[in-house]
Specification:
By secondary structure, the protein is α/β, with parallel strands linked by helices. It contains eleven helices and twelve strands.
Length: 357
């Protein structure tokens, strides 16, 4: 592999909860604590004070209260005070902020976590608050309908087919059988899936992500610090984030230009990528993002099962990065690409390249 800079990011620990449809009486703090404790133990650290910076990702709309994310800090311990930040996005963007801190020399290590208890509300309606506040949000366009519109546009343009979408779901459910944290798994043929009724045309229920409660956490540090701690690690060689207009009528929904630009900026060579975890909550989106990244047929896509098997809001993007890191650390791959998205119909897209130490 290429030489690594001492300030390159190293992923040294990652954990996620079992994704479930409804955790019942458990609150967000109770979801977060087990994964925080696991990554701290895996990294051989005693307390949060051993980490230079902490950053979380969540969505206050899920809890229905302003600054609700602050309660999550209780999982870390309120005293003594720590250097802490938060992004109102998927925790992949909390990792991005942590990366900037470390690259600038303001920190040598960071704890990143994301969480969501989506079950109490109507998630498709809640996510409509990501839309343009003047023209779209007042219409209460739900996420399922918006993505059905994108899927129909892709079908009309010949970018995807219903058979290809069913193939994505079939592979996702099959891959998820070997992953303990996934919510949906099993063997389903394309024919079985296509026989199911449409939910919001042209999407069937299996084309949509399950509502999942859960949390994830990760510890990253400089390569130098990882060596000092004596921990195995995967190296984050680059992260690139691009944003497209929130005006759905002003962009081509059948492609992901922002992902293409990010992949080009990171010099992603799809033929050399061993594995890819794509944050694609809807089946047709995996086809769009795979094409945008230029991934070869030999690349194993979503070996974990991906978002169609478990989709913890505000943690699923971080999960993509964590899954790649874990497989690299275990020696299952040398080069991987993780993708994270946010906003309606693949509006924000981040590409992360990871490689072996």
């Amino acid at each position: 592999m290429s030489n690594h800079s001492p300030r390159d990011l190293a992923v040294v620990a990652y954990a996620r909860t079992q994704a479930v449809r409804n955790v019942g009486a458990k609150n967000e703090i109770e979801l977060i604590m087990p994964v925080i404790q696991q990554v701290m133990a895996d990294a051989g650290l005693n307390n949060v004070q051993d980490i230079d910076f902490t950053c979380s990702g969540s969505c206050d709309y899920l809890q229905g209260a302003a600054f609700a994310f602050v309660s999550g800090v209780d999982a870390l311990g309120a005293v003594p005070p720590i250097k802490e930040s938060h992004v109102e996005m998927d925790a992949a963007w909390a990792l991005y902020e942590s990366m900037l801190k470390i690259k600038m020399g303001a920190a040598n290590s960071a704890l990143v976590y994301g969480f969501a208890k989506s079950s109490p509300g109507q998630l498709p309606q809640v996510m409509s608050q990501q839309l343009d506040p003047y023209y779209c949000s007042p219409l209460w366009l739900d996420a399922i309908s918006m993505n059905a519109m994108q899927a129909q546009a892709c079908l009309d343009a010949g970018v995807v087919s219903e058979e290809k979408m069913a193939e994505v779901v079939s592979r996702s459910r099959s891959n998820a059988k070997s992953h303990d944290s996934m919510q949906l798994s099993g063997d389903f043929s394309v024919e079985q899936l296509l026989a199911e009724p449409e939910y919001v045309a042209p999407l069937r229920k299996h084309d949509c992500p399950p509502v999942s409660d859960g949390a994830s956490a990760m510890i990253v540090c400089t390569v130098e610090k990882a060596k000092e701690w004596g921990l195995p690690y995967a190296v984050i060689k680059g992260m690139d984030h691009r944003i497209e207009t929130h005006n759905l009528g002003a962009r081509d929904l059948t492609v992901s230009e922002s992902t293409e630009i990010a992949a080009k900026a990171l010099a992603v060579d799809g033929k050399k990528v061993d594995i890819a975890e794509l944050h694609t909550p809807f089946s047709h989106q995996e086809i769009i993002i795979k094409k945008a990244l230029g991934l070869a047929d030999s690349t194993v896509v979503n070996p974990s099962g991906g978002c169609l098997a478990a989709n913890v809001m505000m943690a699923a993007g971080l999960d993509c990065i964590g899954e790649i890191a874990q497989r690299i650390i275990r020696g299952e791959a040398k080069l991987g690409v993780a993708h994270a998205t946010s906003g309606p119909c693949l509006q924000h897209n981040m590409v992360t390249v990871l490689e072996a130490a």
